[in-house]
Design brief:
The chain is built from one helix and twelve strands. By secondary structure, it is mainly β.
Length: 160
């Protein structure tokens, strides 16, 4: 290890959350212990010991004590939403033209077969229809944003 690498390592340890750090590489051993009485300082002990056969460089880090977290409240079951993906590569449009109102908005109820958006591909306007009835929960891409094949366009909560 050269001086620059040691300096970088010491800066890393100084900013890290642990109090002790020890590194042993091919006969070189570096041990850093933070001085708790003076913030931002560290004691450094370097020793050169006889080379120890090592398959790969090893770094040992003493873990910081971890306080036990209180038990987490049980999560409610995650709602399964229906995703409508892009059937092609193109540009996503929420309305039929500039200045026109969007075909659907978040919170709207849509029916199976209802047009949700338009994807322009090679100067052709392709209407994308809903394959289920339900409430639009999320519209993923922004208007006039390019989309890829299979990329999610809408997330819909299906009617029960």
């Amino acid at each position: 290890m050269d001086a620059r690498e040691i300096k970088d390592l010491l800066n890393f340890v100084r900013k890290a959350d642990f109090d002790e750090f020890e590194l042993e590489l091919e006969g070189f051993r570096l041990r850093v212990v933070k001085n708790k009485s003076a913030p931002g300082t560290a004691q450094v002990a370097m020793t050169a010991s006889p080379p120890v056969p090592v398959a790969a460089p090893a770094v040992a880090v003493a873990p910081a004590p971890v306080a036990e977290a209180p038990p987490a409240a049980p999560k409610p079951p995650e709602e399964k939403l229906h995703e409508i993906g892009s059937p092609m590569v193109g540009t996503f449009y929420r309305a039929t033209g500039p200045g026109a109102k969007p075909l659907c908005n978040v919170g709207d109820h849509v029916s199976a077969g209802q047009t949700l958006c338009i994807i322009e591909a090679m100067k052709l306007m392709n209407e994308i229809e809903s394959d289920i009835s339900g409430t639009v929960v999320e519209i993923v891409p922004d208007n006039a944003q390019p989309v890829e094949y299979g990329e999610p366009l809408f997330r819909i909560r299906a009617d029960r």
